[in-house]
Amino acid sequence: MLVTIDLHVHSTASDGTLPPAGVVRAAHAAGVTALALTDHDTTAGVAEAVAAARETGIQLVPGVELNTDRSRGEVHILGYLIPLEDGAFQELLARRRGARVRRGEAMVRRLQELGFDITFEHVRRIAGDGAITRPHVARALMETGGVPSVAEAFGRYLYTGGPAYVPHEPFTPVDAVQAVLAAGGVPVLAHPGRLEDEAIIPELVEAGLQGLECYYPEHSPADTRRFLALAAKYDLVVTGGTDFHGPGSTGDRAIGSVSAPSSAVDALYERQTRLARAGS
Ligand code: AMP
Ligand code: MN
Ligand code: MN
Ligand code: MN
Q: Which residues, judged by CB distance below 6 Å to any ligand atom, belong to the binding site of ligand 1?
């Protein structure tokens, strides 16, 4: 492959372990030519990533990942090319991050009830300025000696449905798709191989979904073939990314170890233009 395009990575703006500029440098070192920063519920890292990308010659695609759950398992929507100055979208993200704080506090309370000596201040310190996520709670639990590793924190307590798990405040996948569209961005379904129920795909297409993350480290070759066929069937942009979270993160995977097709970034911009025309 001539190009390596990674359209799904995280930084310290959410649950990644590298700052945005560090993520860009790691991508550059791995031969990535186009990169999308897709932090959970925040675009706070994008400006730093854009500046670092300019220095290294990488094409930086602004993005975000919106997690929804409850109804039929977790469904994650990636939003690309959203104008960062869109006030309504930034307000939505701020509300989602506020909900993440309350959820983080609730998970800490569960862990305290289970007998662990953990505080939300500790979680907050680990997250720094970033959006509060489960990996931050997991790390705080490890640092207080409650578990030997972040993986065990998830495996025993924080897995979805686990004894210390608290769901996100209600937000449906259709809400997420519509919010990205309303902000002038391009909504893409993340890691469809992790869906509990693939019947959600046509429902999201109906709501305006524009792309499918067919290439993903956990997808088997058969998964990838199935999702490529679905993307063709529903006229969705084929994307791909690693979901890199940096060294020392859970499920650590190499940045640039899967790639979106070389046409993916142009296809996202083309969709954005098409949507703007259709909406005007
Ligand atoms: P949250 O959105 O706060 O529920 O956090 C979700 C994040 O936790 C995901 O994006 C992953 O980075 C991480 N994560 C989810 N499940 C696991 C797991 N079983 N083991 C390790 N990390 C996980
Ligand atoms: Mn994550
Ligand atoms: Mn995800
Ligand atoms: Mn992700």
A: 15, 40, 67, 133-135, 154, 159, 245, 250-251
